[in-house]
Input
Amino acid sequence: MEKSFSSKIGVLLAAAGSAVGLGSIWKFPYVVGENGGGAFIILYIVCSLVFGLPLVMNEFLIGKLSGKSAYGAYRSLSGTSRWLWLSWTNLLCVLAIMSFYFVVTGWCLYYMVEAMSNTFAGMDAKALTAHFDTFEGHAFQMIMYAIIAIVLTASVLWFDVNKGIERLSKILMPLLFLILIFMAVHMVFIDGGTTGLKYLFEPDFSKITSKAIMQAMGLSFFTLSVGVGALITYGGYMPKDQNVTSTSVQMIVLVLIVSLLAGMIVFPAVFAYGFSPAEGPELTFVTLPAVFQHMFSPAITCTIFFALMSVAAITSTISMMEVMVAFTCEAASDSKWPLNRHQSVVVVSVILILVNVLCVLSMTGHVNWLNVMGQNLFDSANTFVNNILMPVGALGGALFTGWFVPKARYQGSRVGSFLYLVVLRWLVPIAIVIIFLDSVNII
Output
């Protein structure tokens, strides 16, 4: 099977799809809302360029120079198996993310179906909260929609890289941008929408706190999909003549544009109808459907919005599940039981169905023995990923390139000297350690 992208635009759109997911469209607006708007966005952009860009470039470079996924890349470039622990960290991180990400993707698919049926007609925020709570307590429905999301993702990965991931990325990413632009323009022109734009783009630097700075750095890592091995895997599929620097910059620009468009959808609507921009995670599934009920053709508007959420979620699940599929293929090739791509997709799909079933049962209280430190599996996996696994994966990748990979490996690369000598040795590791210490309340 073909194991490379056939075009440079295919790499860019697939990588952008990996990063542009629920982080940009679901998490970004409510984190901005919790941290005061415009000034936080400036922080987020600065962190994405200063800290995120070197990490994106580094992960692409690791994959491109090795031509492998995270499992083979670290061993190939270091010439030793001592760095395999980092690839296993990436795998564990992706597995932990997928244990709850498919559940949330299922929520998006469910809400799209409900919106198409005009179920939310006449519901206020209180009724929508009750509706979401009822759905969240219904284990069978959540499992069913999570499995649908897994099957949809697996059906793309069943094909080789350019016929599956690349071909669909060329369809879904333009579709995603068209829906975003349509929704943003629609929201900007509603009565009172300019107040939301002012909140979004007019900085109030009195809102900047040490917490906001930490959250901006953490959000930039999350939305750029660093530290999970996805960009290493896609780097391994890059055409040999593709420039890592320009691809990385273009990807980050696309992610920033999507995040800002998401903000332009959310905040004009929220301010126009008197809701709080700091609603938190409920902003998407409670506040916005309530807002849409006040607008022209609420069923159509709500359906389009949750179609947008579903497309964004699927573009990310494809990249993260591909990390597991590529890892399984490469790891199995070193064993007595090699697996081809189709077999790996089946094995990974079964594993993901099992962990998502356990996640849902933990959420609904059916298996309390899965709770970790007072949190159900959904919340504990989310906490573990954000506070431990992603920082460790990103830090390990930076230290790997900056200190342990022979410099000769990067000769001829336009970004090699810059990455090797300055940023990955000092700046990025220090930033990641600070984020980690903040996340565990040490500082």
Summary: DSSP finds 17 helices and no strands in the chain.
